Amino acid sequence: MQTGKKKRILAGMNWKIRITALFILLAGSALGYVVYWSEIAKENSFPFRYGLDLSGGTHLTYTADVSGVTHGEENTAMESLRDVIERRVNLFGVAEPVVQTERGSVLAGTGDDYRLVVELPGVTDVDAAVNMIGQTPFLDFRLEQPNTQAIIDAKIAAQKLLQGGGDISSVDPLALQNPYADTGLTGRYVESAQLEFNGTTNEPIVSLKFNDEGAKLFAQITRDNVGKTLAIYLDRSPISTPVIREEITGGSAQISGSMNPEEAKTLVGRLNSGALPVPITLASTSSVGPSLGMQARDAGVRAGIIGLLAVVLFMILWYRLPGFIASVALVIYTILMLAIFKLVPITLTAAGIAGFILSVGMAVDANILIFERMKEELRRSHAYNDERGETTELDVAVKEGFARAWTSIRDGNISSMISAVILFWFGTSIVQGFALTFGIGVLVSMFSAITISRTLLVAIAPRLHKGAARFFFNSGVSLR
Amino acid sequence: MIVAAIISVACFGLRPGIDFVGGAVADVHYTGTAPEVSTITTSLDTAGFTGSVVRETGDNAFFVRTKHITDEDEHGKLSQALSLGGTAQYEETNFTYVGPVVGQELRQKAWIAIVAVIVAIVLFIAFAFRQVSKPVSSWVYGAMAIIALVHDVIVPTGAFAVMGMFFPGYEIDVLFVTALLSILGFSIHYTIVIFDRVRENLKRDGREHTGNTFAETVGKSLRETMTRSINTSMTVLVVIAALFFIGSPSTRPFAFILFIGIIVGTYSSIFLAAPLLVAINDMREKREGKNKKTKKRR
User: Fold this and answer.
1) Given CB atoms, is A302 within the 8 Å cutoff of chain B?
2) How high is the ipTM of this complex?
3) What superfamily would CATH give domain A3-50+289-473?
4) CB under 8 Å to A357, separation ≥6 — which residues?
């Protein structure tokens, strides 16, 4: 046998591994220090990002009605909707708001739904928040049709009929039609709006300035339809029905009609902060008070620390020295995760913290698998070696244990990853928070169990399994 | 256990959260003297929020839930009703409103997610154990794992139904589905560790011609992985317990169902999935024994 040579090679490797182990420990504590320091420092460049449920705030989901948008243009319209809402939210001075667009799920049959998600940290009054986003004016221009007058007359007649106690079935079906046709010219083409007053009647006038695209469209509409009525609709009801006298190329228009100066002023303000390109309706809201959020955050952190300590205690009592090593690996794992949360950065929610805490429990699993395997190897070689009066080589058992546990660690973690990925794929934001921290946790824990605990354990493993080493490497409680 | 779970679901029923049916929940904290629960309920009833659930959750604090809210604009109406027409001052610490359309979509998504996880896992197991086709095919491993999974999902759901009777917040919401899906992940993890050992022992049996029967091999594998299964569950249970007792109240029902799920998952992987493998194999051997009179090593 070339055992002598093999042992020397192993001894040489051990030194390399010991240096690597030392390096891991140093890097781990350095990273831990950085994470800790960046948290207490006043000028915090990498703070933890907390979700609204932990910091307090309001979450609003709007459904956008894109039926009026040309097919294929939906995304562009949604982009500009987002820009408009973002501008509006910024005007009100909310710190770090999030405004993003979302598509419905194709699989759930709502693939054509377009949504807008607004997150307002620090705002806890839902009604105020909704008003802030505004029952926004949806402005559009509609053109007279050949039968416009007929429809209007029918509408008036129908109104009289119904007021006079007439039956709804006897109403002229023409009355149900829209008197004016869509032109495609909407508030999204408005660049700016201004409040003016008519010199003679002193009526308020809102003058609009279109952007280049809008100006072209407006010029085309006015050129083709001289003499016709171009109705101005606000929130789907006509507010003004001017007649086109000539082609207007300058890209400016005026709205006059039944408005008092206050209404006109609000309209100008809203048009300036951006008219909505598509109408939106509120689909869901949720708000969390800041004190409740703070409580939830503290509770999550405390649960994390207690959970970690409990696992460490359990591991050391049961697995002694290897358990201690696993605990060190676990602490390094936690530090790594926290650093990832800070650097990426990942927004932490209550569900996200739960996912992380769960992953702490999972992270030890790989270690347990390895240690059980290691003990089996030890028992097996003991039975073999004791017969021959030889002493078991502990370091070989350690390496074997790792090697043999690998397949089940791999398969188990892949199945966990499958769940995490599917959760992330299908989930809504709250589930995604959980899936994200859990998934990252599974990946990082595989790394920490295989790399960190292995290196550390091999580094300190004495070569022969006897005396003190035998005590430290056995479990605290033995089943056999 | 499955029967008990189904009975408790049938008796107590599961309360779907507003995530899935639409509606609103609010946590309110009265600053002055708090009104009685019945007073609040009556006030809500008269305002049109019939059938609302009001529960006391602490000092002057209440949990309010109503399904009869279809429009965010009704929030003002709800506030008015909660303040008893302006006579009682309160703070709203939490308010959630979900429109009916969003609720429906979430419900569909939840089902898809559960089915997708199960299908993906069967495929994965069948793939991971593809080399082990004797004496039972790798698809059987996948199928047995799924039976264990179904068990692991039904039992915690039953426990949840019982809890739902006594505590607010134990509702079938998105977090509940998340918990079920994580249980699926855990349980399959446990089952895989055992199957992995079966796989390894079968290979060794083949190599060393130990003459062990399939049942003996599975039994040996179970014994060998027992400590590991229990210890892993212990560490996970320890952290979940921490999450349950000290964690955020919003994740408490989540921790509860996970706790039950992990215990059941460990149990089912040891006492359900692996013994079922043996049972299937016995059935197959009997059938084959009838059909052909090949000699079996038994």
Assistant:
1) yes
2) 0.70
3) Multidrug efflux transporter AcrB transmembrane domain (1.20.1640.10)
4) A300, A303, A304, A307, B239, B240, B242, B243, B247
